[in-house]
Amino acid sequence: MRKNLKNECVNCIERRRCRDSFSSWIFFIIGLIATIAIRVVTVLIKIDPIDGKIAWYVGIAGFFLFFVYMFRIGQQRARLIKRSNLVEKISQREQLTDEDYSLIDAILCALSSRKERINYFFIFGLSAVALILAVYLDFIR
Fold this sequence. Notes:
The protein has 141 residues and is an all-alpha fold. 79% of the residues lie in helices and 3% in strands. Strands 1-2 form a two-stranded antiparallel sheet.
C-alpha cells in the first residue's frame, strides 16, 4: 500500500477502512455518543434520575453497536491473516509474496487510524471529567 498526496490508500486491500469510509464514521460517531452518554450518567442521575437512565441506555446501546462493528472488522482481518498463512510465514521467516506485503500494509494502515486515537482521547478525557464531577457531587458538594 502506498499513500498518494491526498493521504488515501492506493493498492490497499483494506482501502475502505483506511480511507475512513462513511460507515466507519457513522460507527465512530456512535462510539463517541456512547462514550459521552455513559460519562454523564453520574451527573444526570443527581439532576434527574430519568435523564440518567436514558443516558445509560443510550450509552450501552451505542457501545453494543460500536463493538459489534469493531468485532466484525477484527474477524474479517483475522480471516485474511489465517487464509494467507501470514503468521506462519512470518514466524518461520519464509519469503513473503507481494500479496502478503499488501496485507501487512493494510493491517498497519488500519491500525494507524486517526479515528481510533480520537476515540481513545475522548474516552480518557471524558472519563477524567466524569470522575472529577462524581467525586465533587458525591463527596465535596
